[in-house]
Write a structure and sequence with these properties.
Elements: E1 10-15, H1 22-35, E2 40-44, H2 51-57, E3 61-62, E4 66-69, E5 75-78, H3 81-87, E6 91-94, H4 110-119, E7 123-129, H5 137-144, H6 154-159, E8 162-165, H7 170-178, H8 185-192, H9 198-229, H10 234-244, E9 248-253, H11 258-273, E10 276-283, H12 289-305, E11 308-313, H13 317-328, E12 332-335, H14 347-354, E13 359-362
Parallel strand pairs: 1-7, 1-8, 2-3, 2-6, 6-7, 9-10, 9-12, 10-11, 12-13
Antiparallel strand pairs: 4-5
Helix pairs in contact: 1-2, 9-10, 11-12, 13-14
Length: 367
């Protein structure tokens, strides 16, 4: 029985691409939980016109969707969050956690809806593909040539109680596609010639396997630390212990579009090293309207990732960098392709001389 203030258990099924079977597996678990006597409902299901998925949903109660009017007067069917919370099941199945809601609903993104469901003490099963993780956005675009527009903060995956990788070989997934089990016949050739190229799928599979391995190792580290110190305030003590041995990274960026890639790469590095990430912008004079827009984009990105944005004034970035590194305890500095400077000595050499005890890495820009 759920008690007041209990937070629901969160399990995410992660895949490398559409069609691997995330939603099907979620529905299978829903049936198993219902057969065990639990109160299970479908909060939202997106079967994508796949008969096997629709058939698997048969027999599970579904909360009716609500019709929401969007731009142009058209209507779309969205998850009815208030109705789901009123229904108050033990377990809710909520598909497509990276989905963006239309304006006017309770939250902008479905993962925020799910957070509200969990906060109500309801357990949740959900699904997402690896390309929707914010920190992987540039890497996925480089691997596949496709820029994913709907992203979720990596913390959504990190905060889940369980992450289950639904793994298929690229060859098996392509066979499913050719058999019409993923898209309708008219879309198969287009998919094969674009996102579902075998080299794309192989790269995505590798990224998915690495992501889950890192997630498991991160959780193992935290719980191992908790076990060593006993049960008193385990999470807080474990978190402190992990931070004590971690690195602190700083990304030195300029307010320009390419800096977002640098920030994402730096954040991934920070996660692997078990450290925190600061993002430093050194402004020279009053920013232009374009620079203000780009700075606001950086602010949003760092907020989504959980990094810390620091904006400082200074014509020469080196003294500012020295001070911030000292104040923040930085151990690792990352920067993009250095701009042409008015100083005689290259920026990288000046950083190496100014910060002899700090590791420095250049993240090259890519077309």
């Amino acid at each position: 029985m759920r008690g007041a203030g209990t937070v629901g258990h969160y399990k995410i099924f992660l895949g490398m691409a559409a069609g691997v079977g995330k939603t099907y597996r979620m529905l299978q678990e829903g049936h198993a939980e219902a057969a065990a006597g639990r109160d299970v409902v479908i909060g939202y299901l997106e079967p994508h016109e796949r008969p096997e998925t629709s058939e698997q949903a048969r027999g599970l109660e579904a909360v009716p969707r609500r019709s929401v009017e969007i731009r142009g007067g058209a209507a779309v069917a969205e998850m009815d969050l208030p109705a789901l919370l009123t229904r108050n099941p033990e377990l809710a199945l909520i598909d497509e956690l990276a989905h963006t809601n239309p304006p006017g609903l309770e939250h902008a993104k479905r993962y925020e809806d799910i957070a509200a469901v969990l906060a109500a003490g309801i357990d949740v099963l959900s699904t997402v593909n690896v390309q929707h993780l914010e920190s992987l956005n540039d890497q996925i675009a480089e691997l596949t040539g496709v820029r994913v527009r709907e992203t979720v903060p990596d913390r959504v995956l990190a905060d889940a109680d369980e992450v289950v990788l639904i793994d298929l070989t690229p060859e098996t997934l392509i066979a499913r596609l050719r058999a019409g089990k993923i898209y309708q016949a008219r879309n198969i050739e287009s998919a094969l010639n674009n996102f579902f190229k075998i080299e794309n799928l192989a790269a995505l599979r590798e990224v998915s396997l690495r992501q889950v391995a890192e997630d498991v190792e991160s959780k193992r580290l935290v719980f191992a630390e908790a076990e060593q110190v006993g049960t008193r305030d385990e999470e807080r003590v474990a978190g402190d212990a992990a931070k004590a041995v971690g690195e602190r990274l700083l990304a030195l960026v300029r307010p320009q579009p390419s800096s977002q890639r640098l920030v994402r790469r730096a954040w991934r590095s920070a996660q692997r090293l078990g450290g925190e990430l600061d993002v430093l912008v050194v402004r020279d004079g009053e920013p232009s309207a374009d620079e203000r827009t780009r700075l606001e984009a950086l602010r949003r990105l760092t907020s989504v990732l959980g990094a810390h944005l620091i904006v400082e004034e200074g014509g020469d970035p080196i003294p500012v960098l020295e001070r911030v590194v000292r104040e923040r305890g930085t151990t690792y500095v990352l920067l993009g392709d250095p701009p042409r400077q008015r100083f005689r000595e290259p920026l990288v050499m000046r950083i190496l001389k100014a910060l002899p005890h700090v590791d420095v890495r250049i993240v090259r820009e890519r077309s």
